[in-house]
Amino acid sequence: MIKMLLTLKNLYVAGNGKKILNGIDFQIRHNEVQALLGPNGSGKSTLAQVILGNPKYEIIKGGIFFEEREITKLSMEKRAKLGIALSWQSPPAIKGVKLSQLLEKISKIKFESKKLDLTPRFLERELNLEFSGGEKKLSELLQILSLKPKLVIFDEIDSGLDIKKLEKVAKIIKKELVAKGISILLITHSGTILRFLKPKITNVILNGKIICKEKDYKKVLRTIRKYDYEKCKKCKLLAD
Amino acid sequence: MKNVKSANYWQIDHKIKNILGIEGVVVLPSAEAWQKFKWVKSLFKEKPKEGYFLWVKKQISFPLTTCITIASPKISQNLTNLLVIEKGLRIKANITCNAAENNLYGSHKAKGKMILKEGASLEYSHFHQWGEKDFVSPDYEFILEKDSKLVYTYKNLLPPENLILKTTIYSGKNSSSNINFLVNAINSKIRIQDTLILEGGNSQGIVKLRLVARKKSDIEAISEIVAKNIVKGHLDCQGLLVDKDSKISLAPKLLCQNKNAQLTHEASIGRIAEEQLIYLRMRGLTQDEAIKLIVTGFLEIK
Lengths: 240, 302
Fold this sequence. Notes:
heterodimer; A: alpha/beta; six-stranded mixed β-sheet; 12 strands; 32% helix; globular; B: mainly beta; ten-stranded mixed β-sheet
């Protein structure tokens, strides 16, 4: 039997007293790339934060399992140590703390920053302070690669990067993560990254529930581009 | 002495452990200097009991170092220190005062005068590291003559139970000063009073305070710039409250006695943003490690 890497079972989550996730069932295997698409406010980023254990969100029902071990109540740092990593959509700036200082504290392996076209000078800048959108994504990717994770959730890695940079980032993700058997969950609004990383399953989330799991990501993208997410609600290939 | 590459003063409790001068740098116990030089007598009302006298008369290529330690229980140090940099010299000084152990109930009082003669430059790094039951009270005066330049950084990452820190800077014509106070209070009562007096025309100064209050700490800081001429001064006071049981009071004060002077200030007291902690914890740092990293960053002065 193939061991699941991450399993979310009937997950109900609230934040600020408001229900955000309404019964999420999701599984990702080792060595698998999946995508999660959904409109703004559908619960994509909340799902990522909940998987990593952000205490801002309250789990009302259901559970999170990593390598078949329940981690629903595990602290964020312990989840990180198990090998779950999140590339933030909008990482916070931390004044006075250099990117190099953080890397020194968290790195399990030394990843050559020049492979991402990041100069030594960039590493000496204060974390996310006055970083451009693209610089934030590259800084996130560098940290992720240094963490040597088992599962990476990329929250909107394709926003803020021009197509050339995105292609390069996708190539690095392929070479340094996908080729090494690391599982990836791509959270994306635009779906631009999908054609570079070709997910095995593309999930669609609407109102805090995954309503579609489709093997052909192109089909999902075509549908969304043509009909927005309204068509998804009526799709025959509804989730189990 | 020719090949010696240091000039230093090292005192433990009341005993001088090492004292080393070099050609062009006179290093003496301050009591001895008081006896020896008439001009030293004019600087202090009373004969010093203990402390150092450093007189730099020639350019040196290495920093001056002093280290004053409390190593025995219930020691009460009463220091008088004097540092004089002669005209045009560019000097660095690493000054350390500390307790060798955490529970010595020591008292460290210091009165100091630092004189920068015309065109002299001093980069003075002042490190304090104390035990949690100590009482520490330094009172320093910096006298900046014409065209001199001072960079003074007071850094206290392990503070005593009680710290009263008084600093006064007198700035002469065309002089400049860059003053930094970095204090990480842990279960401490801290009182800071610093005054930058811009007396000489065209003198300028920046004073930065970075104060962190943790574990029932109580910090009060009054930071003042006085403009007596056509001068420029800026105060930048920032506090970081790490927990609920601590408090910080910051009082930036500008006193302008010349209508063409330019004095500005900024002050803020904040707390660690929850999002920053979450971000760092998702990278694998514990809550304490994340706080430590954020505090270290806050106390970093560019």
